[in-house]
Amino acid sequence: MIPGSSGERVAVVGAGLAGATAAALLAERGVQVTVFEARDRVGGRVHSQVDDSWPVPVQLGAWLFGEDDAEVLDQLTSGDVGIEELTGELWRTPDGDTDPVDPQPFTAAMTTAQAAPEDSSVTDALTAAGIDPADPATAALLAILATRTGADADELSSWLAPPLPAGEPKAARDNLTPFVEHALDGVQVGLSSPVARIAYDDSGVSVRLGTGEALSFDRVVVTVPLGVLQKRSIEFDPALPFSQRGAIAALGMGAIETVWLRWDEPFWQNEESIWHAVGADVLIPTWINLQPATGENVLVGLVGGAAAAQFAELDEKAALEAALASLTLWI
After folding, report:
1. Which of 155, 152, 177 has the alpha carbon at shortest distance from 50?
2. Distance of alpha carbon 36 from alpha carbon 14, whole angstroms
3. pLDDT digit string, tens, across residues 191-219
4. 188-190 and 64-65: which strand pairing?
5. Contact 261/55 with Cβ under 8 angstroms?
6. pLDDT single digits (tens) 252-298
7. Tens digit of pLDDT for each residue in 83-124?
8. 199-209 core/surface letters (b: 16 or more CB in 10 A; e: else)
9. Is the pLDDT of residue 311 over 90?
10. Does 57 sit behind a cis peptide bond, omega within 30 degrees of 0 on the bond before it?
């Protein structure tokens, strides 16, 4: 590959956080950047909804950050995005409060599995280590893992299992859309412009939009979600290299749902920011209490994996009933 140079024309497909960051870095180096976004907004999976009837923006995309997100947090705070620390965890069973679940057996089981000659699911790795995945404590940890990955334990690779969240998470309390828009300042952005075909050779790249219009560039950077590539919504000519097609086919996509509820007066007394259900038959096992950090009576439910897909199928009334039923553990 020939290194790029200032003055080249580069297309960036996708105006999410990855696309906006790529566009900003290229523009800083004197590259002529054009961004194509299929949606009618920028941000991708960073999606803040601001409503005057709500005391804080409702975050429907990425808004929680952990210890490994220090660089992103630095960028957000430098962009005047307020960040709140979520302190304290509360673990509760149907019989009352309980001690936090010890993650050490889970971590040890994954370490052992990663040394095995063949990969296995997280479920099989736990079983091989003598840990019952259905045990209430273990199931609680797996539910937390699902809210982070969007996948259940029988779908996750033990070789590549993400670690359980460590430390106290941080949350964005402000609208994140201006942060993405700022990265795109001075960059030409085409919204509602889905890319249908990318043809490339040694002379450059042709980008064809869904409208049929074709534009020429020196290079292209593709930052669309994995699901778009797996559905072959974009045709590549020639086809992507075999190794890249193999990776696209092998990688998994999960489901995560976020539920925002607010009250005129709180029904809860505890001040912990993170609530985890243990051994309870609830659809939404993890809740974030924003009252200590923001002073607002807002609870945010997190659910991942098959439970998230189940929740997504509910109509508005049934979804509210499921959310309230999941909160009865905390009353």
Report:
1. 177
2. 6
3. 999 999 999 999 999 999 999 999 999 99
4. unpaired
5. no
6. 888 999 999 999 999 998 999 999 999 999 999 999 999 999 999 99
7. 999 999 999 999 999 999 999 999 999 999 999 999 999 999
8. bbeeeebbbbb
9. yes
10. no
Q: At which residue do the structure tokens 């996948």 appear? A: 151
Let me know: does 126 contact 153? Beta carbons within 8 Å: yes
Predicted confidence (pLDDT) per residue in 317-331, tens digit: 999 999 999 999 998
pLDDT number for residue 3: 54
Query: Which residue's structure tokens are 């509360």?
Result: 90
* Beta strand segments in 32-151, E: 32-36, 48-49, 58-59, 64-65, 83-85, 89-93, 96-98
What's the rounded mean pLDDT across residues 33-59?
A: 92
Question: What pLDDT sits at residue 165?
Answer: 82
User: Taking the model in full, what pTM does it have?
Assistant: 0.88
Residue carrying structure tokens 């005047």: 80
Cα dihedral sign for 219, 12, 39, 151? positive
> Are residues 110 and 161 in contact, defined by beta-carbon separation less than 8 angstroms?
yes
Q: What pLDDT score was predicted for residue 5?
A: 62
Both structure tokens of 94? 């149907």
Task: Give me the half-sphere count of Cα atoms (radius 13 Å) on the Cβ side of residue 310.
Answer: 12
Edge-to-edge strand order for the sheet containing 235-237?
Answer: 214-217, 204-209, 195-201, 235-237
User: Which one-letter DSSP state was computed for residue 84?
Assistant: E
Angstrom distance (rounded) from CA 276 to CA 53 = 28
- Which two tokens mark 115? 């040394």
Question: Nearest CA to 82 among 179, 10, 150, 209?
Answer: 179
Pairing of strands 195-201, 89-93: unpaired
Among 292, 301, 297, 298, CA closest to 84: 292
